[in-house]
Amino acid sequence: MSTRQIQLDSGGQLHHFISIEGLSREILTDILDTAENFATVGTRQVKKVPLLRGKTIVNLFFEPSTRTRTTFELAAKRLSADVLNLNISTSATSKGESLLDMLHNLEAMHCDMFVVRHNQSGAAHFIAEHVAPHISVINAGDGSHAHPTQAMLDMFTIRRHKPDFTSLRVAIIGDIKHSRVARSQIHALNILGVPEVRVIGPQTLIPPEASHLGVHIYHSLEAGLQDVDVVLTLRLQRERMEGALLPSEAEFFARFGLTEAKLKLAKPDAIVMHPGPINRGVEIDSAVADGPQSVILEQVTNGIAVRMAVMSMVLGRPPQSGEESR
Ligand code: CP
Which active-site residues does the annotation give? Predict the structure, then answer.
């Protein structure tokens, strides 16, 4: 079954959230609008709404994570769900239990949602195909394939600063080849109507299929940054690189590192983003990461509201009018 087929129910509503690709502009806009409703929950004295009370959500992270795991946990708790964080290194999979046997045991505990990060592309899709029909699966990053909630929190952050997607020029810089974030960002930007998406990087880090994704390819940072509204920087995914794709990190920084001087080529009000973790002095200079145009920490904050939106939507409980403010 295709990912599009698997993630929508018979009424066209999200049941799983595996990939941005194939979703409609209406669904993406619905996620952004729903997240907007949740954005103030974290600033209240009581940071909770009762929407997912009685639901049980399991975080299954087979790869390291700081931002994604903790913001999924906070989002679930702010929706009043019960959260289990499975420690994969001490779970029975380390004793040879198969992934599917582990999932069926969690199903037997009447869990309602699995949030999955895995180093294999396609892992979240595979799990969604094999779980009981009442369980929703959210992809928290699978190999170099997709990281849909990261892309949606990026779109949310962009929209807060630049409300009209249809007038934007957006540049994504660095290791596009290994980046699940870049793939999901490109799909989201295209679906939301951004007319010009640029990818900038050395030839070895731009995948051949990029030209089919409707992006403009640049191998010069100076040329690619001209007059852009949004600059999306990426980490070099060393753990996914096979062979020598780069001479050295120092050379990468010299050619593709975002410095204050290079940022001046973008529009004066351009915003700078990064999904984290940041490697300072490799893809971005500290003066830019901590500078006035950086919205990197806003992205982290916005991740909670966006994940609340996605979790409430896949479990069929988006807030009704006024409900999020209770
Ligand atoms: N952006 C992101 O996925 O960060 P983590 O690896 O810390 O979750």
Answer: 67-68, 95, 117, 147
Q: Please tell me the distance between residue 159's alpha carbon and the centre of ligand 1 in angstroms.
A: 21
Residues 253 and 187 in one domain: yes
Q: Ligand 1 centre and the CA of 320: distance in Å?
A: 30
pTM for this model (two decimals): 0.94
CATH (domain of 186): 3.40.50.1370
* 58 and 80 housed in the same domain: yes
Residue of 65, 73, 273 to test ligand 1 pocket, by largest number of atoms within 8 Å of CB: 65
Q: Ligand 1: residues whose CB is within 6 Å?
A: 65-68, 141, 150, 275-277
Distance 74 CA to ligand 1 centre (A): 15
Alpha carbon nearest to ligand 1 atom 6, residue:
65
- CA atoms in the 13 A half-sphere facing the CB of 140: 27
Same domain, 160 and 295: yes
DSSP 141-192: EETTTB-HHHHHHHHHHHHHH---GGG-EEEEES--TT-HHHHHHHHHHHHT
Question: Of 213, 306, 288, whose CA–CA distance to 21 is shortest?
Answer: 213
**Distance in angstroms (rounded) separating the CA atoms of residues 21 and 121:** 14
106 and 163 both lie in a single domain: no
Q: Residue 245 C-alpha to ligand 1 middle, in angstroms?
A: 23
Same domain (yes/no): 220, 123: no
Based on the structure, what is the number of domains in the chain?
A: 2
> Which of ligand 1's atoms lies nearest the C-alpha of 69?
8
Same domain membership, residue 24 and residue 108: yes
- For the chain, 326 residues long, give each residue's pLDDT as a single digit of tens: 888 789 999 999 999 999 999 999 999 999 999 999 999 999 999 999 999 999 999 999 999 999 999 999 999 999 999 999 997 876 767 677 888 899 999 999 999 999 999 999 999 999 999 999 999 999 999 999 999 999 999 999 999 999 999 999 999 999 999 999 999 999 999 999 999 999 999 999 999 889 899 999 999 999 999 999 999 999 998 777 766 677 688 999 999 999 999 999 999 999 999 999 999 999 999 999 999 999 999 999 999 999 999 999 999 877 766 655 55
Q: Are residues 157 and 265 in the same domain?
A: yes
HSE-CB of 268 using CA atoms within 13 angstroms: 0
Q: Could you tell me the residue range of the domain that residue 175 belongs to?
A: 148-300
